[in-house]
Each structure stands twice: as structure tokens, then as C-alpha cells.
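User: Okay, second chain of the day. Same drill as before: sequence in, C-alpha cells out.
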Amino acid sequence: MPRRLWPALLLVTAAAANNNDYHLATRYDWAATRGFYLQFENRLEGDAVCTPATLKLILGVADGGQWQFVVSQADWELERDYAAKATLGPRGAELWLDGKSLGKLALACRHYDGDIDCGQSPGWANGVTDYLVQQQQLVLSADDRRLVVDIASREKRPPALTLFEPNQGQRIAWPGGNDRELTLETTFRLSRRPDLHALAPFVDRYGQSIHADWPGKIHSDQELRDDIAAEDKLLAELPPSPDFDRYGGWLQAGWTDTKTGFCHLARRGGKWWLISPEGNPCFFTGVSGPPESTWERTPVSGREYLFAWLPPREGAWAACWAKNDWGVQDGTESVCLHTANLIRKYGPTDWDQKATERAFRRLSAFGLSGAGKWGAPAGLVETPVLGLGDAPRLARHVDIFDPAVQAKVKALLAERIGTRTKDPYVLGWSIGNEYDEIVTKQEIRDILKRADSPPSKRALLDQAVDGLHRGDLAELATAWKLSAPTREELYRLAAVATEGDLEQLRVWYERRYYEFLYRSVKELDPNHLYLGCWTVPGWWENEADWFAIAPYCDAIGYDRYDPQFADAKLQDLFRRADKPVLCGEFSYPPTYGGERGFGRYPTYSADDADAARLYERWVRDAAANAYCVGVQWFMYRDQDLTGRGPGRGDQLVFGEHYAFGLITVTDRVKWDLLRGMRATNLAAAGWRNAAP
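Assistant: Same drill. C-alpha cells below.
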């Protein structure tokens, strides 16, 4: 799950690199080529530790059409203070370090309205370093306005807690404006990263930070067990609303649609609606992943010392353990301390059943229409994600032009869909997830270079000749600088397409891929909706990917982690595709001021009450949008403090470690979030019905 529009460099380095960035002052939209960033970047191949020797200070500036950069790699010294300064204006930009100019850009910065972020490392580029960046102060000035942001004095956490998320950062309101100069001045220090072994353990027996306390923290098994009665009392005060049918359909709309026994879509008064199996209009609100009883897990191998206690590997506790998560076949063990808490709370025999039943009751109390992606208890509407399992890959994807592979894929889909073709609790199917389902240019390059002439390569070359070069093989050979008198000889060559042809072939192939999956699912199950592959606007090759999937789904399922439900660019995609959309993931995980060890996600909230406030704003905007038929929160439970992985060895956090959940790792409901979300969920369909 990406969570944002990141620079394109991420897409080519993330799979096999150690990236660590630090934002001194940033405000940009990478895809729109607007804004600026002043930040540290450290990029290493493989799993090497980032050091000051490879650390670069970069000023990036965009004018609406291109990005330009000043890049400096200084002789950085530890335990020394530095001062950097950047000016951004209509006549250009310049970067200084300790009073010395590092470079100028003859590029006018095109700003946009939005907050300035400082003092943080993004989750996708928070790799291992042997140093810490400690930003002390940021001064912003333009015309007669000046703002001093004191960053260092806000850090009150003990060192052992700070290491979970060294840079909690700040978000500063500051006006844009392209006709004036903005000056950024910041001071910082590079310090040696503390030794983890000296500060361990970090995580208590319940999966919480050892080095902090807060209201609601669990201190004993008895507190876990006492929660059952306390929660039962509160849940009794929040019964399911009688205004909704069992599928989330709203009974107070004053109108109904056809009762089909399955979810379907209808347009009324210019707005798309999801219609429940009973024929009632629904604005769907869901949550990913309940009951989350054994997943997500955190890697343990090579860092057992981080944990004050780990469960036994036998008996009921064996359910806490697994190996080779995320398909990494290196024997890494992972553990789910949440599972251990469920065993303590509900008993060693039927803990899973009781946790699942409770998840069902909780989601009803939250006023949700159902679940979402990644699983659900029986009796809740969901949007299951289908995988293609062990179907052979040609490059990133299966060869959909190979009849044998087609048969394999259809058999796998038939197995996964099974008897659920008659299940009214399936809102709609999808296949794959996010960037993994985008066909990339590199994938097409790789296929064209293959020497074994697989069916997809032949299909691509036939399309190149017939679709792009009017059936003229000689014309293609000249353009691609090939010697291929016949098609059979062309098939055997390691072909390299021109950039223009490459993009057209990519989109053509992607459309054929999406079409094959859509038709395969619909042949197996004509009753349910098909939602595509949860495209992430901005985390793709380009917007052609949106229009490649649009014809081959009933509603466009997409994920979006952004402060806004829809900006002008996304709204334009909605309008041009003219199809209903369903947001499969969004979230505002609380940081709790960094005092519980969780990371700071780009779309973060301060605490549970703040998350409920931001949730209301997002859902209000979504419900008022003519194309949106529902949204789904990510996710049911908080992630582990030490990360969900993958990873192995001597590192405190591997992967995501955010407080996304409606419940904690100790199986406690976040009541401030619940009450706010419930009010929003019960009102959402009415908001949509009343929207012009």
C-alpha cells in the first residue's frame, strides 16, 4: 500500500535499496511539477547502512513544467551544528550551507496552497542509518512576514522511544503565492545513532512501548479480561441503527431501486448510488481486515532482544507464529503479539471465534455498512481481493495471450470465487492491488527483449506492426533500428521499441490484461460487481492507467491517502471516465505526539478524536461527490510498533508501523474514534441524498 504521490525515483529504487530521506522543509506535488523541497537524501543499493559519507543535501524546485535541483554532498561531521538557507522566487532559486552558496537555479518556483512539512522522514524512505538528523529550527520569511518554528524544544521523549520514529515533524500553515520570494533558513545537527542493544528491550509482553505510559495502556492480563464486561456495557449503548438494512442500505431515502439479491449500481439525479441486495440506496462505509486475529505480524529473527517477552511456539501460542511472510523464503520468523493478547483475554480454546464475533459487534457499533478489503467475518458485506497465486508470470504479470496460462488463471479464479457466486455479502470482486497491477514500461521492454518468443511478445510485436505502423514491417524495422525481413525473424530478436511506440504498446497491453481479468471473473460470476485492481492515482506510469481500467470494471476501485478526498486532478479523472468510484483505502492514523512509538504517516491525525474529525470531513466530501458510492478505512487494528515487515536482522522497525486501527494491539476499542465515526457513518447516506 503506497500512501501518497512520491518522486519517481522511489519507483525504480524501492525494491532493492536502502533509502533514507529527511524533510527540512517541503511543499510539493511531484506529478504536477509544482512546489519545492529542501531535504536530505541517502540512497544505497541493497541493504547497506546509510552513512554521512553518502548523504546529500538537495533543493528541488518546480515551475509547473519541470523540476530542477541543487545537489550537494558535503564532508558531514557528527555532533556539529549546520545552517542551511534557500531562497525561492520568481527570478530563480539558490541554496547555501553555512553561508556558502551551493548552487543557483534559473527557475521560478511555482507554489501551490498547502502546508509546509518539516522535521520528518517519510515512511517509504526511513531506512537504516548510523546517524540521526536533528533539526533544531526553521525560519520562514516572505515580504514582511516571518515565522520561527522551534523544532528541537518539542522533543520530550526518552531516546529509546524516539528511535521508533525519530522525526515526528511538524506541518506549518504558510500561504503560497508565485509573485514573491520565500526564504527558508534552518539549523540542524547530525548525531550518532544510539545502540539498540544498550536500550533494549523496547516492546512489552502486550506489544506496547516499554518506555512510555498513557491512559488505556494495558499492564496486566486481568486488565485484558476486565475489558470484556466494560466493552459489553458500552456496546449495548450503541445498537445497530434501525435505519439501515443488513447490507447497509438506507431505509429513509424515500425511494428504492430494483431488489436483485446482490449489490448493484444505479444513477439517480446525476449521482451514482450503490444499491443493496434489498434494493435500498447505500453510501458504503467499510474497514479493511477484520477480525485481524493473526495478521499483521512483525519479524523477529535476528532481533529477539527487542521484545521483553515472546510467546511459546507450542500449544495455543503456536497461532502467534509464522515463517516467510510476504513471500520472502529465508526462514524469517514473525510473531503476532495481538494474537497472544486474544488468547489471554478470551481463553486458549475459542479465542479466535470470540474475537471474530466481537469484531462483528464492533463494526455494527461503529455504524459501518460492512468490512472492506482483506477479509471479513461472515455476515458482513466485503470487497474481497483475489490473487492469482502460483500462475506463472511472464514479467510482472501473467501472459494473458498464452492459452495454457489463461486456463490456469481461470481455474484459480474459479477456486477462489467458489460458491460465493450466490453470496449477497460480496459487494464486488477485485484482482491484485495497487502498483503491482500496473503494467510498466520496463515490463514491456523486458518482454520485447525475450529470446523465447512467448505469446505476449508475439502479440506486442503484431500490434506494433499492424496497429502502430500500418502493417508495414519495414517501417517498424527502420524506426526501431532492426533487421527483420519477416515476422518470424522479428519474434526472435531482442527488440527495443522507440519511446513513443513503447508507451502505446504498454497501454494496449494493459487494456488487454484488464479486459481478460474482467471477462474471466464475469464469466464465473455475473451476479457481482467487478472493481478492478485498486489503482492509486499518482502511483502509476501516468493517468492512462486510470482510463485503461475504466472500461473493464463496474465501478473503479481505487486507494487514496491524501488530506483531500478529491483534488481538481482526481475530479477530472472521475468526470472523464464517467463511472462510479469506490475508495478502497484511506486513513488518518494518530501519532499521539510520538509518545506510544507509532510512526507519522503522511495523512496523520493527532489523536483518536482528531482522527474522527478528519474522517467526518473526508466522508462528507465523498458523500457529496456525484461519482463516489463509498469509502473504506484502512484498517481494523493498529500495526506492530516494530513494523509489519518484511525484514530480518538488527533493526528496530521493518516496514509500516502506524496506528491505523479502530482497535489497539491489546484489543481495546478506540472509543473517541468510534463515537465520531459512528455519527458520521449513520449520517453519510443522508448527506449524499441531500447533496445537489
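Confidence is low (pLDDT under 50) at residues 1-16.

User: Thanks, on to the next one.
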